């Protein structure tokens, strides 16, 4: 059994984070306070923490590295999903994401590690990647 991970990250506005992760992405909300919110991201605990230094329009800094002819933002986080769940999520986020960093597509097609992937940012600039493998056991760590 894989155990849940815990990830805490900064956001510029708690209400904006609640709207993005809770309402738009549909992640169940757990405990919260005026400066943080726990969300259940497909069984994992992600926690948005207010960073007032970002200001009302601030964004966290990202760097990009090339992967499969795309500029992949670093840092980023997300979850490896079942293919059908990934497809459902990609349709859901198309309804509220105006700009994908990397549009949903199949990366490394026909090669070891073939995967469905997509990248987008939350309103604070945190980069998220969601991916799926047809055969997770064979492909998750394929070389």
UniProtKB/TrEMBL annotation:
Origin: domain of life: Bacteria
Coiled coil: none
InterPro entries: Glyas_Bleomycin-R_OHBP_Dase, Glyas_Fos-R_dOase_dom, VOC_core
Domain VOC as annotated: residue spans: 3-133
A Pfam family per the record: Glyoxalase
Name listed for the protein in its UniProt record: VOC domain-containing protein
Species: Neorhodopirellula lusitana
């Amino acid at each position: 059994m894989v155990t849940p991970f815990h990830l805490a990250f900064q956001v510029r506005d708690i209400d904006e984070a609640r709207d993005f992760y809770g309402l738009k992405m549909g992640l169940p909300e757990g405990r919260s306070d005026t400066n943080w919110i726990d969300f259940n991201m497909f069984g994992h605990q992600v926690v948005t923490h207010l960073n007032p230094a970002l200001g009302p329009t601030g964004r966290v800094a990202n760097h990009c590295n090339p992967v499969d002819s795309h500029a992949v933002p670093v840092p980023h986080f997300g979850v490896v999903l079942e293919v059908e769940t990934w497809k459902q999520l990609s349709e859901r986020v198309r309804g509220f994401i105006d700009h994908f960093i990397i549009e949903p597509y199949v990366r490394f097609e026909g090669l070891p590690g073939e995967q469905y992937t997509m990248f987008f940012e939350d309103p604070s600039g945190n980069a998220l990647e969601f991916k799926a493998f047809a055969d997770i056991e064979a492909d998750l760590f394929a070389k």
